[in-house]
Amino acid sequence: LPFNIGGRRKKENIQRGGDAEAPAAPTTPATTSMSAPKEGLPDAVKLIIGAGGIYGAFLYYGSLQEDVFRYIAEDGSSFKQAWFLQVLEAFANVVIGFVGMKLMGETKGIPLKMFGISGASQVSAKACTSLALANGLSFPVATLAKSGKMAPVMAGSLLLGGASYTGREYLQVAAIIGGTAIVSMGKKKGGSTSNSALGVAYIVGSLVLDGVTAGFQKRLKVETAKAGVKPKPYDFMFWTNLFMCLTAGVIALGLGEFTTGLAFTASNPEILSKIIKFALCSAIGQSFIFYTIANFDPLILSTVTTTRKIFSVLLSIFLKGHSLSPTGWSGIALACGGILSEMQAKMSGKSKQHSH
Question: Are 266 and 258 a contacting pair, CB within 8 Å?
């Protein structure tokens, strides 16, 4: 809603937040430079199409995800089948990825083993995010926490890879994590959602799995290079989501979520329509991500997806009845400041690379 796109330094080997915006994807854009002469639509129009599609699809995606897990049936029950939801979301992406792959041409000789491992890790991270929401964590807190996914990646790199980071990078992580913690404690009395300990545990698990996924995706890049193949965007979309769908399907079957999930949606048609639209928004949004990758520098995509997360948090607060105290708003400001600082640092680094 993920491949690390455009990460040239080890300390930038960090996935973007958002849950669906993180499809495994090529590490370089299909075109060379925004300043190079191109045929077709002007760059400004292409940017409006790409960014507009990402904003529209994923803002609605986030709203629908929150609606699904806040839904209360007439008998007082709620939707808890996170793995069943992941099967449907991944399946929608498989369909769109398959169509795109056939239209754009399929790449032969892809190392599927690493796609399978990466897909399994990735869908587990997404399921943990959904389980966090299902167990009482509010959507704004979950979204801000997922923006701190650089933390487990940094920790793993420090412990295992001997990487080094600047003081600014440590402060960015601290701002996002600290701001998220302040928001979780800054709800006014009478707020509609409580942040349960189990919900917090699931979001921490999701962050850890994000770090694991980043490592697997790095190995996937190495394996594709060894095999001498360059998978196209829709190859990544199809194969990653196929293994995500299979993994989620096996787990959902083992937990009995197909039976309970289908029964719940059959009894509550309203939530079924939300789930279907949620899955479609994920697939459409990923297609717009690949469109943006193909036409612009990866930094453009990073900027769009980063600001999208902030708007998702604000829309949720204003439209879904979340009530924050002044302390909670200070946490929002701190976390968003950390997110924007990270984005600005990437832009500065890119500018320096171009100046050399």
Answer: no
187 phi, psi to nearest 5 deg: -80, 140
Nearest to 184 by CA among 19, 335, 15, 16: 335
At 157, is the pLDDT very low, low, confident or very high (cuts 50, 70, 90)?
A: low
C-alpha 250/C-alpha 255 separation (Å) is: 9
SS3 117: helix
- Contact by Cβ (8 Å): 261, 252: yes
Token pair of 50 as six digits = 């790409």
3-class secondary-structure state, position 273: helix
Question: Which pTM does this prediction carry?
Answer: 0.77
- Rounded-to-5 percentages of helix, strand, coil across the chain: 75, 0, 25
CB-count exposure of residue 199 (10 Å: 0-12, 13-18, 19+): buried
